[in-house]
Amino acid sequence: MSRIEPSTNEMLDHARALLTSGRLVAIPTETVYGLAANAWDASAVRKIFSVKNRPPNNPLIVHVASLDRVVDAVRMPLAKPIESQLAAVSDLWPGPLTVVLPRGERIPDIVTAGNQTVAVRIPSHPVTLSLLNRCPFPLAAPSANRSNYVSPTTAAHCEDGLDDTVAMILDGGPCDYGVESTIVRLHESGPRLLRPGGVAAEVLAERFGLSVDTLMEVSANRQATKQLEAPGMMSQHYSPTTAVQLLYPGTTIVVPKNTGRIAFQKLADEEVSRYTVVEVLSESGDLEQVAKRLFAALRQLDQAQLTCIHIDTCSPRGIGRAIMDRLERAAAKSSEF
Ligand code: AMP
Ligand code: MG
Question: Binding residues for ATP, per the UniProt record (predicted)?
Answer without folding.
Answer: 54, 58, 63, 117, 143, 151, 195, 238
